[in-house]
Amino acid sequence: MNKKLLCAALLGGLGLAQAANAQDFDDRWYLTGSAGYNFQDNDRRTEDTPFVTLGLGKFISPNWSIDGELNYQNPKFDDGVEGANRNLNWSQYGISFDARYHFVRDGRNWNPYVLMGLGYQRAEEEYDAFPSPNSPAERKDGNLAAKVGVGLQTTFSSRVAMRAELAYRADFDDNSYAATAGPDWGGYPHNQEESWFGDVLASLGVVIPLGAAAAAPPPPAPVAPSCADLDDDGDGVNNCDDRCPDSKPGEVVGPDGCPVPVTIDLKGVNFDFDKATLRPDAVSILSEVVQILQRYPELRVEVAGHTDLCGSDAYNQSLSERRATTVYDYLTSNGIAASRLVGPRGYGESRPLEATPQTLPGCKSEINRRTELNVQN
């Protein structure tokens, strides 16, 4: 089969490497082993041959790994080599130091990589030296080699990862006997000035990490929340500042977390002098109050009535009660449940908003003739 077609097929087959679990940066040393096929440079006058490797390496960052790798192959002379040389030995072995850059992506079980490496390749080549009594003679020589390539590697599972690789190795061997033999050696055409050879290496291998994987760091100890971060009764005041930590849900509290009285002053719901009937302008205001109470069904309020300072205390007490009853009846007749209302209660002239003389006409303060809704929760 044509070598170029074989190489293309092997590149397409790299994606068949078996996937493993996702890997973070794992800096354990690992062993590597692979088997593959060495497509020999034609000018070597040797046949393509299987090869094996054994190596040791590790990741030095999430993307970079370094490997030291031994290799061995034992090709035969090809069919163009005739005579006694055809069955003589030709073998090759060496060491390579390779750096790989892995294109790692989170959540992917395999990652492509590129590699580059330098090494040393040694050749042992027998050849016919007839009529010398020392025939067959042998050449043993070592040379610099360089390698580039691409591959795929799965992420580490508990014990193993897979690796598929295609590489090109330049072997700077300028003393090959078979490659420089003259035409009398079977008349095989070749380059007699060859100073290096390029081999294509296709392989599948395993990567076996040594030792147990590093344990994940323990999660940070939980930080106990401070009282400033807590609000046990849910009243909006943190525990540090809350002097009443047992506030009831919906209760209105002050900055210290303690309940505070809240009064809804029905401004505009005032009464004519010595009257307990609603004025037209007060009806529209109470309609809005009904809507607010319907919007917040958890609110409970006290309906309280007040008077100005004119008249006797007893009379004003009775008048304030009648005014509170007027507002109370309006609310209940417009859908506000009596269970949400406390009262009606009259406070007479005991709680004036504006102090005025108790003599006519100064006692007639309209703002004192009022009703209020005092929030109870």
From TrEMBL:
Q: Which GO terms describe its molecular function?
A: calcium ion binding; porin activity
Q: Which GO terms describe its cellular component?
A: cell outer membrane; pore complex
Predominant place of localization: membrane
Keyword Cytoplasm assigned: no
> What keyword terms does UniProt attach to this protein?
Cell outer membrane, Ion transport, Membrane, Porin, Signal, Transmembrane, Transmembrane beta strand, Transport
Where does the record say this protein resides?
Cell outer membrane
What is the membrane topology here?
Answer: Multi-pass membrane protein
Q: Which residues form the signal peptide?
A: 1-22
| Any one Gene Ontology BP term | monoatomic ion transport
Q: Which InterPro entries match?
A: Bact_OuterMem_StrucFunc (IPR050330), Beta-barrel_OMP (IPR027385), OMP/PagP_B-barrel (IPR011250), OMP_bac (IPR006664), OmpA-like (IPR006665), OmpA-like_sf (IPR036737), TSP_type-3_rpt (IPR028974)
Report the SUPFAM superfamilies cross-referenced here: OMPA-like, OmpA-like, TSP type-3 repeat
Database matches in CDD domains: OmpA_C-like (cd07185)
Is the Signal keyword given for this protein?
yes
- Limits of the OmpA-like domain: 258-377
Q: What's the protein called, per UniProt? A: OmpA family protein
User: To which species is this protein native?
Assistant: Marilutibacter alkalisoli
